[in-house]
């Protein structure tokens, strides 16, 4: 893979959820792995900077290493879609539903998928 074709990559880490410390660790690991492969990767903490800065600073894509609310619930995914910036992971709807464990269980049961009751 031509890593230059990836462009400037933002690793979204930290955030505002109670899982911030774990997100910072996850982000640091991702950042190290990407950089070790020659990717132009940069840490970006949405708790400290506006997501709109991603576009102004020329980021081509985002690796989401955020955890919990505002990271895994479709919020960041929706903002990135509005900004036209591709990202890793599931889209808005899947992220939103998956974080709601009760709704996820209802959907699985409605589709006949096995899940503990």
Explain this structure to me?
The chain is mainly alpha-helical. The chain has a single domain, classed as Rossmann fold (3-Layer(aba) Sandwich), CATH 3.40.50.20. The chain has helices at residues 20-36, 52-56, 75-83, 92-99, 101-110; strands at 9-12, 41-44, 61-64. A three-stranded parallel beta sheet has the order 2-1-3, with helices on one face. Strand 1 (9-12), helix 1 and strand 2 form a beta-alpha-beta unit. The radius of gyration is 16 Å and the shape is elongated.
Short summary of the structure?
The protein is mainly alpha-helical. The chain contains 5 helices and 3 strands; from the N terminus they run βαβαβααα.
Major sheet: order of its strands?
2-1-3
Q: What would you call the structural class?
A: mainly alpha
Any guess at the CATH architecture?
3-Layer(aba) Sandwich
First-last Cα distance: 45 Å
> What fraction of residues sit in β-strands?
5-15%
CATH fold field value:
Rossmann fold
Shape: elongated
Q: How many separate domains?
A: 1
What is the helix/strand order? EHEHEHHH
Mean pLDDT: 94
- Into which percent range does the helicity of residues fall? 40-55%
User: Which assembly state applies to the chains in this document?
Assistant: single chain
Low-confidence stretches: none
What's the alpha carbon Rg, rounded to whole Å?
16 Å
Largest sheet: 3 strands, parallel
Q: Given this structure, which CATH class is correct?
A: Alpha Beta
């Amino acid at each position: 893979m031509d890593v230059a074709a990836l462009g400037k990559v933002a690793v979204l880490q930290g955030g505002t959820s109670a899982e911030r410390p774990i997100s910072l660790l996850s982000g640091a690991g991702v950042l190290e792995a990407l950089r070790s492969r020659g990717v132009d990767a940069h840490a970006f903490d949405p708790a400290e900077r506006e997501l709109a800065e991603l576009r102004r600073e020329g980021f081509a894509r985002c690796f989401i290493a955020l955890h919990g609310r505002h990271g895994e619930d479709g919020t960041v995914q929706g903002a990135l879609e509005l900004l036209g910036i591709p990202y890793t992971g599931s889209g808005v709807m899947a992220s939103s539903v998956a974080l709601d464990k009760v709704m996820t269980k209802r959907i699985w049961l409605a589709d006949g998928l096995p899940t503990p009751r």
